[in-house]
Amino acid sequence: MVISTEWLSPQLVRVRFGGPGFSSFEDRPETDKYVKLKFTTPPPESHPVTRTYTVRRVDAESRTLDIDFVVHGDEGLAAPWAATAAPGETLSLMGPGGGYRPDPEADWYLFTGDLSAVPAIAAGVEALPTDAVGVVLIEVDTEDAILELTAPAGIEVRWLVDDAHGTDFLAEAVRALSWRDGRVDVFAHGERESMKALRRVFFDERGLERSQVSLSGYWARGRTEDRFQAEKREPIGKIMPAD
C-alpha cells in the first residue's frame, strides 16, 4: 500500500510502501535488492505486466520500504503511475532479489551509472565502512537531476551532466580516473550500451576479475521495457559475453 510520495528532483519520485503487506516482505542484505511490481496496462488491452525496480531503503522499525522511480513525462507504465500515486493505493510486489553488496575486503570502491542506478548506488555507498575510499560517477541529463548523497568522507561523488547521451560517456570518465592502488570493488549499472563500453574498460583495459565487478544493464535507449527484457535472451542483450 502507498504510504506517501516525495519528489526528489523533477525526474525522480520516491514512493513509500507499507501497510499490512509489509509483514510478508523478507529483507535481504544486498544493496541492489530489487522487487517486481505488477501493473495493469490501460484499456482496452488491460493485461498485467511486471516491472523491476530497486528497493532504495527498507525501514523495519516503521515497516516501510522506499522505491524511487525515474519519470520522463508520460513515457512507460510504472513511472506515470508513480508520478500520480496517492496514499492508500495498492500494488502487488514480488521479491526481493539481489546480487551485490560492497566487498568489505576491497581497498577502494568505484560506483558508476546513470539516474536509473542512483537508488542502488546510494544504498551501496551508505553501506560502506566509514573509512572507505573511492569515487562515485553518476551520469545525468541536466543539473536539476543532481541529488545530495550520504557518503563516507573518503568517497568522492561526481555528478556528470551529459545532454548528448553518449554511449562512451561513462567509459571515458572512468578512463580519466587516477586509478588507485589495491583491489577495487566496482558497481556499474545503467543503460545497456553504456555498460558494454564500461565492460571493455574494466576487463580489457584494466584486467579486473569478474568477482570484482557487478555490471548490469537496467534499460536500453530506444527500447521499450518489454523489448529490452526480451532482448536479454538475445546476443544484443548480453552485457558479458558469457552471460
From TrEMBL:
Stored PROSITE patterns: FAD_FR
Entry superkingdom: Bacteria
Cross-referenced CDD domains: siderophore_interacting
Name of the molecule in the record: Siderophore-interacting protein
PANTHER family attached to this UniProt entry: FERRIC REDUCTASE, NADPH-DEPENDENT, NADPH-DEPENDENT FERRIC-CHELATE REDUCTASE
Gene3D superfamilies: Nucleotide-binding domain of ferredoxin-NADP reductase (FNR) module, Translation factors
InterPro entries given in the database record: FAD-bd_FR_type, FNR_nucleotide-bd, Riboflavin_synthase-like_b-brl, SIP_FAD-bd, SIP_fam, SIP_rossman_dom
